[in-house]
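Recall from the previous lesson that a structure prediction takes nothing but the amino acid sequence as input. Here we apply that procedure to Putative dehydrogenase from Helcobacillus massiliensis. The sequence below is the only information supplied.
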Amino acid sequence: MTKNLRAGLIGLGMMGRHHARNLMNLEGVDLVAVADPGGDPHGAAPGYDILPGVEELVKAGIDYAVVAVPTAFHHDVAMTLAEAGVHTLVEKPLAFDIQEAEAITEAFESRGLIGAVGYIERYNPALQAMRKRLEDGQLGELYQITTRRQGIFPARIADVGVVKDLATHDLDLTAWVAQSHFQSVAAVSTGKSGREYEDMVSVTGRLENGIITNHLVNWLSPFKERTTVVTGEKGALVGDTVTADLWFYENGESTTNMWDSFASFRGVSEGDKIRYALNRKEPLATEHEAFRDAVLGRGDNYVTMRDGLHTVRAVEAVLESAANNTVVSLGA
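The prediction returns the following tokens.
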């Protein structure tokens, strides 16, 4: 009989508690140790001894770890796990800056370890279905990807601004949906909450394959919005990751009589609108299944640390652009 994988979790905050719940219910995995120097404020790990740090987690004899500590601590925790030979899933973003992200990526790749980044939006049913339909050529040539990620102010986030906390999702999912990295970005940001970091940003970009992008992200809206729109030569796909809905707006063919000024316009016209029925499985559960399978050598449906490194580079370019009011090109 195959033994279950032994998993460890460090960080029992708002995200860590959800990781704990999923690890406890993940087939083929035993959550054997949890750690957080601040204890277990949400009661996420009843019956577990709460270890003080990553060294104690390693000593528990784990096969892989999930890191859900604040971003500023990602580097030190991940490097300790890499040196111990532990496969690791690090919550997004991979690291606080490019240098730390490069060091983490190199540490895991050079040791042949499975290193992943927790970009949960990739596992949302709406975006999973969108990616499959794009692969099948439903939209033909892709022209533009736009995202909107808006919501209320999260008092719990204190170590980073809205770019590293939220916009990092949009930069990652856009590159993944398009299968192309960012070539350049231009951004403006502002801070209205009185804190050190920005809480509103608008980004325009261009991917290496020529697709143009636009991203509106803030913590200052009295409603929650998580929308991704991909526009191509045959229509548009619109994904809502709050409701896990996916819509297809097809380009129509208008052959009816039109007034002359409209008839001379050679754009598209409104066609059919379809809402797809999707299996609405919890994205975090799917993410954990994918990482478990990768550790077991059964699949590669996970966000690699090198993917995470590319996203950190895009995030840093956005911050540089907003600070200097300039277009920033990303190197290879």
